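Below is one such protein, fold included:
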Amino acid sequence: MAQEQQIINQIFGTTANDVIYGGNSSDRIIGFQGDDIIVGNAGDDVISGDGGNDLWLDGGDGTDMIAGGNGNDKLAGGNGNDLMYGDGGDRYWQKDATGNWVYTGVDNKSGFDLSSDQALTSNTNTGSGTQLSTNNDYLTGGDGNDVLLGGIGNDAIDGGAGNDTINGGAGDDYWLAGKDGNDIINGDAGNDILEGGNGNDLLNGGIGNDKLMGGSGNDTLQAGADNDYLDGGDGNDILDGGTGYDHLKGGKGDDQLVGGSGNDVLEGEDGNDLLAGGTDHDYLMGGSGNDTLYGESGNDLLDGGVGDDLLDGGDGNDILLGGEGSDRLNGGNGSDIIDGGAGNDLITGGEGNDNIHGGADNDTIWGDAGDDVMYGDAGNDTIGGGDGNDYFTGGLGDDSLLGGTGVDVIEGGAGNDVISGGEGNDKWLSGGEGNDKISGDAGNDILGGGTGNDTLIGGDGNDVLMGGDGNDNLIGDAGDDYWLDGGAGDDIIYGGLGNDLVAGGTGNDLVSGDDGNDTVLGNDGNDTLYGGVGNDNLYAGDGNDILDAGTGDDYLKGGKGDDKLVGGLGNDILEGEDGNDLLIGGTGNDSWMSGGSGNDTVYGENGNDVLDGGTGDDLLDGGNDNDILLGGDGSDRLNGASGLDTINGGAGNDLITGGEGNDNIHGGADNDTIWGEAGDDAIYGDAGNDTIGGGDGNNYLNGGLGDDILYGGTGVDVIEGDAGNDLIYGGQGDDKWLFGGEGVDKIFGEAGNDILDGGTGNDQLFGGDGTDILKGSDGADQLFGDNGNDQLFGGNGNDQLVGGDGNDYLLGVDNVTDFGKGSIDVLTGGTGADYFVLGEKQAFYNDGNNSTSGLQDYALIKDFNSAEDHIKLSGVASNYLLGSAIKVGEGVGIFLDSNSNSVFDSTDELISLVQGSKVSLTDSSFVYV
C-alpha cells in the first residue's frame, strides 16, 4: 500500500491501492487505478474511485457526490444529502441514526466522469458525458436528499429517507424506490418498476413497459411510452398513462388519472377521482367516491361505481355505467350505451344513436341528437328525446317524457307519467299503467293512454288518441285528427280545431268535436256528445246519450237507449233510432229529425224542419217556421207551432195541433184528434174516427174515412166529413162548405153565413146563426136553418127541412136531376117570411104517372102562413088544382092538373100538402115562374 498523503483541497491517487483522507473543507479526490480507500471527512466532497475494486468510498459529513467508477466498489454516503453513482455493481453503505454503518444493498445507475477539472456531468439518455458502467447496480441513498443514477443495466435503487432524485437509466430496472421523502423517480429506458413510497413523489416511467406505484402521499405518476401499470396508492395522486396500453389505479385519495393514447384501463378506486381516457378505447372505473370520468376519443367503457359521479363519453361509441349514486352521464359524440344505475342520475346521450337506461331512482335523461333508445327503469324519471327518431319508456314511477324533434316512440310504463311528443310525427306515445298526461305537440302523432285515468292532448297535426282503460281526458287540439277513442271508462274528449274523428268507447263519456267538421261516436255507455263548430256527424251507439251538434250542418244518430239529440245552429239531420228519445232541432232548416222506435219527443224549434216520430207514441213540435211533422206508427202528439207546417200523424191515435200559420195536416190511420189552431189550415183526418178542430183562420177540414168530428172554429172554413158518420161544427165565421160526404152525418153551421151539404146518407144539418145554405144532397136528410135567413135544399131522398127563425128559402128536391120524383119532403118554415119552392122550370114531385095521384112524391109544408110566406110553382095558377089528400093527412093538397081540364080527378098529380093558413092559388103568396 502506498504512503498516506497529506490532506489538501484536491487530491489525486496513484495506480496503486491508495488510502486517502480529505480535510474538513470541500475536497475533490480521485483514486485512479487500484483498490482504494477514500474518506472525505467533513465538507461537501466530490469523490471518484475510478479504476479498480475500491474497498471503501466514504463521503463523510456534508453533501457529497460519490462515483464508484469501474469495478465492484463500496460506496458510503455518510451524513448529509449525498449523490452516489455505482457505475458497476457496487454496494452501498449508509450511517444509521446511531452513527453505525448499515449495508443498504446494490444499485444500478450511470455515473459521472471526474478525470478532469471540468464540471460534473450526469450520463443520462439525453445528457452528455462518458458512460461509466453497464452493470446491474444496487443503489441506496440513505438519509438526506440523494440523487441516484442507475445507468445502463437492470438496477435497483433505494432512495431512503429524504427528497431523492432517482434515474433508472437504461435497462429493466426492477426496483426504483423513493422510500421516505418527496422523491423524483425516472425510469428512463427499459421496463422499470418505480415505487414512490412515502411523500409527494414524481414518477416518470419513460420508455418501456413500466410499473409505477406512488405509495402514500400526493404523487404524480407519468407512464411515458409503451404499456404501463400505474398505481397511485394512498393520497391525492396524478396518473398519466402517456402512450401505449396502460393500466392506471388511483388507490385511496382524490386522484387524477389520464389514460393518454392507447387502449387504457383506469381505476379511480377510493376517493373523488378524475379520470380521462384520452385517445383510443379505454376502460374507466371510478370506484367509490364522487368521481369524474372523461372517455374522450375512442370507444370507451366508463363505470362510475359508488358515489355521485360525472361521466362523459366524449367521441366514439361508449358504454357509460353510473353505478350507485346520483350521477351525471354524458355520452358525447357517437352511439353510446348508458346505464345510470342506482341513484338520481342526470344522463345526456349527446350526438349519435344512444341506448340509455336510467336505472333505479329518479333520473333525468336527455337523448340529444341521434336516434336514441332510452329506458327510465325504476323511479320518477324525466326523459327528453331531443333531436332524432327516439324510443324511450319511463318504466316504473311517475315519469316526465319529452320527445323533442323527430319521429318518436314513447311509453310511460307504470306510474303517473307526463309525456310530450314534441315536434315530429310521433309513432306511439303510450302512458301505460297509471294516470298519465300525454301531449302530442307538433306533428301527426299517435297517443295511447293505456290503463288509468289519463289526459291526452294531440297538439298540432293530424293525431290519433286512444285513452284505453280508465276515465280519460282526450283533447285533439289543432289539426284533422284521424281517431280519438276514449276506450273503456268514463271519458271526456275534445276534438279541438280541425276535422276530427272522435269516439267515446265504452263507459259514460263526454265527447266534443269542437271546431271543424267532426265525426263523434259515443259507442257503449251513457254518453254526452257535442259537435261544436262545423258540419259534424254524431253517433251515440248504445246507452242513454246526449247529443248536441252545436253550430253547422250536422248529422246526429242516437242509436240504442233513451237519447237526447240537439241540432243547435245549422241545417241538421237527427235520428233517435231505438229508445225513448228527445230530439231538439235548434236554429236552422233541419231536413230530417226522426225519433225511430220508442216513445220519442221531437222539437223542431227555429227553421224549416222535417220531424218524423217513427214507431212508438211520440211527441213532435215543429216550433217556428215551416215544418213537416210525420208521426209514424203509434199514438203520437204533433204540434206544428208557428209557421206553415205540413203534418201527418201516421198510424195510431194521434193528437195533432197545427199551431200558428197555414198548416197542412193529415191524421193518418186510426182515431186522431187534430186542432188546426191559428192560420188557414188544411186538415185531413184520413182513416179512423177523427176529431178535427180548425181553430182560427179560414180552414179546410176533411174527416176522411171513419166517423169523424170536425170543428171549423173561427174563419171561413171548408169542412168535408168524407166517408163515415161524421159530426161537423162550422163554428164562427162564414163557412164556405160544410160537407158531410158519405155516411149519416150531423152538421152544425153555428155562427156565420154557412153552406152545409150532407152529401150521401141520411144527414142532419143545422144552420145555426147567420144566413146559411143547407143542402141535404142524397139520402133522407134533416135540415134545420135555425136563426137567420137560410136556404135549405133537401136534394134526393125524403128530407125534412126546418127553416127556423128568419126568412128562409126551402127547396126539398134535387132541382137538377130527379126533381123530387119518389121523394116525400117535409118543409117547415118556422118564424119569418119563408119561401117554399115546389117548382121552377118544371113542377117538382111529379113522377109522370097519372094513375098514382102522386102519393109517393110530394112536399108537406107544415106551417104555411099566407100572410108572410110564399110558395113557388112552375107555370101559372091554372096549371094547378087545390084538393084534399085524405091518405096522407090533414092539409090542402096542391095538385098538378095533369090533363089540363081544370077538374080535380084521380089523374091529377099531388105536388104538395100544405098545412097552416088557407091556401088560394091566386093569392099573392103564390109565385109562378
